[in-house]
């Protein structure tokens, strides 16, 4: 996308002071939606539990208390001492830095929870934008339908007056009255749709402005990272750690023991040190290692594919957005002013008797359709921006 579009988007199409205030109000509402979301709060609150889990994940197993009594009942046998007592502790000692890898695995659980919170925040931003944009578009459509209804009512009144003097035919009066009634009903239905859209937005936040505010069009495609890329990266790191741990687990833990033995007959006490080292004659971890390696390769391959596709999709989004912006600019600068002027001339021409009622209504319909099409384009642009907000973030540490 060219610099012209990036600058245009970065400015957010906001040149007027009123739009700047609207953008500020929208940002504040968005922040309230994010801060009040119960699901996001639960994810953030549970992060402490994952931190505790990581803290204890790499600790040693509890030591084992050992108590031995031997030579009981054999004190009268030749060359044997009396009963002896041994008290000691034994501890498993993991080798090859297994504890660090176990802590790292537990840390990935916390990272996944943070990722879910980030994804929820992006989802809230996108859904709130779509809802507020629909509310604003509905309110702007009401203004157009209101203008149309007033125009039809004025036209019907003028024709009724002319009919009294026989200057128009009755069929034109009947058609004009019917169109006036239809446009009035359409306007009333559109007013209800505005309230309907506002009610939908109240699901996100209970206190909304009395009137719909214009949703800013600011978006920057630079330095965007997709959530699918982040997800693939987390899975790749997890698979790599699992593979490393599987290789380390092939070497069994050793057991160290310390104790004190008491010989009852001689009342001697000796200190004991013992060790137990398993022999890796049968490597039962080969299958686990092979599976972990295969999962790592799969995760790395998927991550490469996701990264490539995400960049392509983002580039396509920028193209779609720039095309919509060009279309909206064309409507604002050329099409809408032309249809407005055409309607003004047509209304004057009809009143002067230079064009027929059907011709006038046809031009009026074109005026209405073009204004509605402009709002459809604006809403489509908002939906495209919402898709970027839903699937991409700028700075993962600040989101």
Automatic annotation (TrEMBL):
Pfam families: OEP. Keywords: Signal. Residues 1-22 form the signal peptide. Gene3D superfamilies: Outer membrane efflux proteins (OEP). Belongs to the outer membrane factor (OMF) (TC 1.B.17) family. This is TolC family protein. It comes from Acinetobacter modestus.
């Amino acid at each position: 996308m060219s610099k012209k579009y990036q600058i245009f988007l970065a400015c957010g199409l906001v040149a007027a002071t009123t739009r700047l205030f609207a953008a500020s109000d929208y940002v504040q509402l968005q922040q309230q939606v994010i801060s009040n979301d119960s699901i996001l709060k639960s994810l953030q609150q549970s992060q402490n539990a994952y931190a505790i889990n990581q803290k204890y994940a790499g600790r040693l197993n509890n030591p084992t208390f050992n108590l031995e009594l031997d030579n009981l009942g054999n004190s009268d046998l030749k060359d044997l001492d009396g009963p002896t007592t041994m008290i000691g502790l034994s501890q498993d000692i993991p080798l090859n830095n297994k504890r660090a890898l176990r802590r790292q695995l537990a840390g990935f659980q916390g990272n996944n929870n943070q990722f879910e919170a980030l994804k929820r925040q992006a989802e809230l931003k996108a859904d709130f934008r779509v809802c507020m944009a629909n509310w604003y578009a509905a309110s702007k459509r009401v203004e157009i339908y209101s203008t149309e209804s007033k125009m039809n009512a004025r036209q019907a009144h003028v024709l009724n007056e002319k009919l009294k003097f026989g200057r128009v035919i009755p069929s034109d009066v009947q058609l004009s009255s019917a169109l006036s009634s239809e446009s009035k009903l359409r306007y009333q239905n559109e007013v209800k749709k505005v309230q309907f859209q506002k009610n939908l937005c109240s699901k996100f936040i209970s206190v909304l402005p009395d009137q719909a505010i214009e949703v800013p069009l600011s978006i920057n495609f630079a330095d965007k990272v997709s959530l699918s890329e982040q997800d693939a990266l987390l899975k790749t790191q997890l698979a790599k750690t699992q593979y490393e741990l599987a290789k380390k687990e092939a070497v069994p833990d050793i057991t160290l023991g310390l104790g004190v033995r008491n010989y009852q007959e001689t009342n001697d006490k000796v200190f004991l040190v013992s060790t137990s080292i398993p022999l890796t004659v049968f490597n039962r971890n080969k299958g686990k290692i092979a599976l972990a390696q295969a999962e790592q390769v799969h995760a790395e391959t998927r991550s490469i594919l996701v990264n490539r596709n995400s960049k392509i999709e983002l580039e396509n989004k920028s193209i779609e957005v720039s095309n919509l912006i060009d279309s909206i600019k064309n409507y604002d600068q050329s099409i809408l002013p032309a249809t407005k002027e055409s309607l003004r001339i047509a209304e004057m021409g009809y009143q002067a008797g230079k064009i027929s009622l059907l011709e006038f209504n046809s031009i009026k319909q074109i005026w209405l359709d073009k204004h509605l099409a402009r709002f459809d384009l604006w809403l489509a642009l908002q939906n495209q921006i919402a898709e970027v907000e839903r699937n991409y973030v700028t700075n993962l540490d600040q989101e």
